[in-house]
Amino acid sequence: RSGSLRHVRAIRTDASNGARQALARAAAVAREVVEAGSRAGLTVHKVGIGVPELVGPGGEIESAAILSWRSAGVRKAFAAFGDVTIESDVRAAALAEAPLGAARGSPTFLYVGVGTGISSALFIDGRPYLGAHGHAIAFASGPTRAGDAAGSGTVVLPLEARASGPALVRRAKALGLHAEDAVEVCRAAQAEAGIARGVVDDAATELAAHVAILVNALDPSLVVLGGGVGAAPGRYWTSFRAALPRFAWGRYARRVRVRRARLGARGGMIGAALSAVEASTVR
User: Fold this and answer.
1) pTM
2) Pairing relation of β-strands 153-156 and 83-88?
3) Least buried of 109, 135, 145, 188, by fewest C-beta within 10 Å?
4) Pairing outcome for strands 257-260 and 127-128
């Protein structure tokens, strides 16, 4: 509950090689952590899993956008270590930021995660709002429509495909800048004006326009920007923070506090553990 991490292992899941192999790799690294803990006198009773998918109120995985895992298979893979709780990764990260990170002291806040994908979690009175089906996280996954006064228009790619980490890389390459990953694009944007800076500024501004809709509708006291791209210091963060008030409506929305997530990559791990510890009250 203090947020301390005793034994940490990180690997590539290599999800492109198949869901079964990715799950086996995750279970293997979990065993390494459990064994390291056992040697230090620690005992495991519960397992928390954060997944980048829609997760229902009962902990059932209900989408297959990135990892086509089935809930029963996940529980079976980790059952040897204790009771298994499955949570969406964005809610897990927000669960950690609430008592231990950027949202500490703010019972009603909006967490927005930007990394491989984009999703959000609303907290009300210190608890995550699940929605009717546990799907109240996917504000950036559906296509939008751009039109004119005459009613004509075209379907536009989802925000996730325009402002996430992979989107930065795609947009930069399309404009002639080769980049291996979003980190490289963001570093180039911070260093000097050019293609990378334009790509990052455009993406962060587009994110701000969409987040402003949520701020206008939900009236949170705080917005926390997290995820590998969102929580990183630099141009994406500063452009987002500067643009958000331009799209917000009303004096409180325009003045909403905005913070970067403080726990970084640790947030997902801590939040996944908290989801298991607090399973009886979170669900």
Assistant:
1) 0.91
2) unpaired
3) 145
4) unpaired
Determine phi and psi for 43, rounding to 5 degrees: -120, 135
The two tokens of residue 39 are 């040697």
**The dihedral sign for the CA sequence 24, 26, 27, 31:** positive
User: Tokens in use for 40?
Assistant: 């230090």
**Lookup: tokens for 5:** 């991490």
With tokens 């298994």, the residue in question is 84
| 262, two tokens | 């403080």
Query: What distance in Å separates the CA atoms of residue 202 and residue 90, rounded to the nearest whole number?
Result: 23
The count of C-alpha atoms lying within 13 angstroms of the C-alpha of 8, restricted to the half-sphere facing its C-beta, is 11
CA distance 48 to 84: 6
Q: How many CB atoms sit inside 10 A of residue 158's CB?
A: 20
Q: Using one digit for the tens of pLDDT, what is the confidence trace for 153-186?
A: 677 889 999 999 999 999 999 999 999 999 999 9
Cα–chain-centroid distance for residue 87? 12
Please give the pLDDT value at position 144: 80
pLDDT tens readout for residues 8-58: 998 887 877 888 999 999 999 999 999 999 999 999 999 999 999 999 999
Three-state secondary-structure class, residue 93? helix
**Paired sense of beta strands 83-88 and 109-114, if any:** unpaired
Alpha-carbon distance of 233 to 186, in angstroms, equals 10
With H, G, I as helix, E, B as strand and everything else as coil, classify residue 4.
Answer: coil
Check: CB of residue 172 under 8 Å from CB of residue 185: yes
Q: Which neighbouring-strand residues pair with 128?
A: 123
CA distance 126 to 118: 22
Cβ 111 vs Cβ 224: under 8 Å: yes
